[in-house]
Specification:
Protein name: Putative acetyltransferase
Pfam families: Acetyltransf_1
CATH superfamily of one domain: Gcn5-related N-acetyltransferase (GNAT)
Number of strands: 7
Number of helices: 5
Order of helices and strands: EHHHEEEHEHEE
Largest sheet: 7 strands, mixed
GO molecular function, one term: acyltransferase activity, transferring groups other than amino-acyl groups
InterPro entries: Acyl_CoA_acyltransferase, GNAT_dom
Strand order of the largest sheet: 1-2-3-4-5-7-6
Organism: Mangrovibacter plantisponsor
Amino acid sequence: MNRPEIRQAEPNDVAALLGIYRQPEVYENLLQLPHPSTSYWLERITHPQPGQRHLVALAENQVVGHMGLTVNTNPRRSHVATLGLCVDPAFRQQGIGRALMQEAVWLCDNWLRVTRIELTVFADNQPAIRAYQRVGFELEGRAKDFGLRNGIYVDALFMARHKPA
């Protein structure tokens, strides 16, 4: 597969994002609840929080991935961004997630004055952990019983990528 097109999310992407985020194999690895509403996603895309960006990846002319990148608005942590990522299960292992992460790193390193990108991932999500490590994220800590998934509390890992000096 060729490198996917990465662009800013637009209101007309909401239906495709809902199609991705409503899949059980997606939401069970995130801290979002099942059954997200159209209005929830429309609000996120059209009125992002301060410092927040939403990018989508396109393959075969359809939205197949989403990345949320939020630069911290606290002046003492304005060098830090938080990354959230999701790829449609039908398009995993095709470089979509890697392309979205590389775009986040490029934006942070070259445009946003961000030197630290943070993320949280469930400790048993080994494919995601390996993908994050391949683009330079390192393990920084573990939180026991971090989130509830399918009625069971699951540990999470804190990972970060630091801009090289």
